[in-house]
């Protein structure tokens, strides 16, 4: 079973992060910055590719909650609030306490939007089938 927590261990620090509270990760050279829903921010000495691998290994199926968006971000899909292709902007929000606008390439946003729309359509089709059964 996948862990509810993500543990990030470096030489000098250990972070225990509630997976549901992780909003996004952002690349910063050989470091990855993270932002939590309670507005806690931090950084670990790990590039974004290593972070993506860590998420997959530690969270297993729960890692599907996260998506790599372009070269600089991994976002928690549950916080996707607004996608603007024209403005090249993604807003991650819980709808109440925080909103984090991110500048993302148009191509990456288009791929994210298509993935989310496909997921919504699949969910609606499954729900319709459940109602008929």
Topology:
Blueprint: E1 5-9, E2 14-18, E3 22-28, E4 31-36, E5 41-44, H1 48-59, E6 66-69, E7 73-76, E8 80-84, E9 89-93, E10 99-103, H2 106-132
Antiparallel strand pairs: 1-2, 3-4, 3-7, 4-5, 6-7, 8-9, 9-10
Can you give keywords for this protein?
alpha+beta, three-stranded antiparallel beta sheet, about 40% strand
Helix content: 25-40%
Output the strand order for the largest sheet: 5-4-3-7-6
β-strand percent reads 35-45%
Question: Quick one: CATH class?
Answer: Mainly Beta
Description:
With 133 residues, the protein is α+β, with helices and mostly antiparallel strands. The protein has a single domain, classed as LytTr DNA-binding domain (OB fold (Dihydrolipoamide Acetyltransferase, E2P), Beta Barrel). The protein has two helices and ten strands. The longest helix is centred in the C-terminal third of the chain and has 27 residues. It is globular and about 45 Å long.
Give a quick rundown of the structure.
With 133 residues, the protein is α+β, with helices and mostly antiparallel strands. Helix content is 29%, strand content 38%.
